[in-house]
Amino acid sequence: MRLSDERDFTKKCLHNSNFDLYSAPASGGILKNCLLYAAWIDKLTGLTDRLEKNFKNLDEFYEELIEQHLDPNKPKSIEGDLLDILLQLKKEKSTSIDLTLEDIKAILMNVLLAGSDTSAAAIIWAMTTLIKNPKVMKKVQEEIRRSVGKKDGILNEDDIQNLPYFKAVIKESFRLYPSVPLLIPRESMEKSTLEGYEIQTGTIIHVNAWAIARDPEIWENPEKFIPERFLNNNIDFKGQDFEFIPFGAGRRGCPGIALGVASMELASSNLLYAFDWELPRGMKKEDINTDAKRGLTTHKKNDLCLRIIYRFMQTILLCGSRTSIVSQLNSLLSARTMFSCLMSFVF
């Protein structure tokens, strides 16, 4: 489902919203849970004020966006986007709850901050691991192009179901670089004992998905990128296999698994289908820095810079952060408007 096909939506949203600032509390959240009065540090450093200002700006942006969609003189798209559907549900009162504009703004914020940002990070990590492993890159591109053939348009979900190696590549990328390394904090509802440790009621528990996915007792050569480990087994994203939980598990698992996986697979498969990718001249794969920034979402510490070769066009240098990349791709792919819409959603 599209969030919006309006160019100014993503551009304005990404420039007006400081994703890194929204993620900042994650690195200090553990400290505040351990030290009862440590919250004053955020106030002293000005982080609290900056967060409140950013959230106010984001709230005003959603207000403006909703007003645009409610404007009777605004041309309506044939399919309608996510916001159109939410406003229609509110108007028809066809949900089990009374959907308010505040509810709609909250949903949009979840899609933007919990969906788009994490998907963008996941795609960048996937491209990073592939460019560092050219044999895997070549193999997965051959599978995609052999299966799909010369197609006029973009790959869809039906095409992806016939790409087992590509799916294994995506899983392996998520294993090495889960979008949310500590998952969402949990709180114990009652006193219990686990492995000899007494856990009191109300204890905040952080699940380290990053460490679990790199545990040498579970994974052979855990630091290596080996997609083949996911072939011929039933390990999936649903949280039933506790050695692989990039989206969490149980009733508190990520409710956006389907959306997250679909956006990741659709964007990545089309990037690999339509383009060839190379490092900038003079750069070696060993030069690629894979350090991650601290925060709620696992983003690369340094920008990913690649030479992009459209199969029917000239070579172009693609470099920058997730914000600048979407701008460059939108300009590059003006002849492929449907692809621009997809890129606007995930970057």
From TrEMBL:
Family as reported in the entry's similarity comment: Belongs to the cytochrome P450 family.
GO molecular function: heme binding; iron ion binding; monooxygenase activity; oxidoreductase activity, acting on paired donors, with incorporation or reduction of molecular oxygen
Cofactor(s) needed: heme
Phylogenetic classification of the source organism: Eukaryota, Viridiplantae, Streptophyta, Embryophyta, Tracheophyta
Protein name: Cytochrome
Binding site for heme: C254
UniProt membrane topology term: Single-pass membrane protein
Subcellular location: Membrane
Database matches in PROSITE patterns: CYTOCHROME_P450
GO cellular component, one term: membrane
Keyword Membrane annotated: yes
Statement: the UniProt record of this protein carries the keyword ATP-binding: no
Alphabetic keyword roster: Heme, Iron, Membrane, Metal-binding, Monooxygenase, Oxidoreductase, Transmembrane, Transmembrane helix
